[in-house]
Specification:
Length: 143
């Protein structure tokens, strides 16, 4: 896992954005078809966001994980709702409709903006992740 200051250098900022409001599972369910059923026990959804200098998400899209050969035990780095980075175990690739729903929900997020030399700046293609179990996305359990 890369240290936060290294990630900041990759994005050209001296302070990375910090999540102030993360989306809820209900925000994701709002964007899924009523008959959606998750086949896997666990999925890890990666998405990228653009955040403007006020901390508003201006663009979001779901992304596929890089292919890992079956003999490689891979982990994914996730930045969670608390803004902390952690490694999570490999999980099944999420369906496209779920990636799209997560990306749509990401527009409800708010951030403390990134900074460059003490000034708020926009940041592009910040990769984030969230994970869900089958139970998390069961509509009857979420309501």
């Amino acid at each position: 896992m890369q240290p936060p200051d290294e990630i900041g250098r990759l994005h050209g900022v001296t302070r990375m954005p910090r999540s102030l409001r993360w989306f809820e599972v209900s925000d994701v369910l709002d964007h899924l078809p009523p008959d959606f059923k998750l086949e896997s026990e666990l999925v890890h959804v990666l998405f990228e966001v653009d955040i403007d200098e006020t901390g508003k998400v201006t663009h979001a899209e779901g992304v596929s994980r890089p292919f890992l050969p079956s003999q490689v035990q891979g982990t994914v780095v996730e930045i969670g709702p608390d803004g902390q980075q952690r490694q999570v175990p490999h999980a099944d690739e999420p369906p496209i409709v779920l990636r799209e729903a997560v990306a749509a929900a990401a527009y409800t997020m708010r951030f403390r903006p990134a900074e460059r030399d003490g000034r708020p700046v926009a940041i592009h293609k910040l990769r984030l992740g969230t994970r869900y179990s089958r139970k998390d996305l069961n509509r009857s359990a979420a309501t």
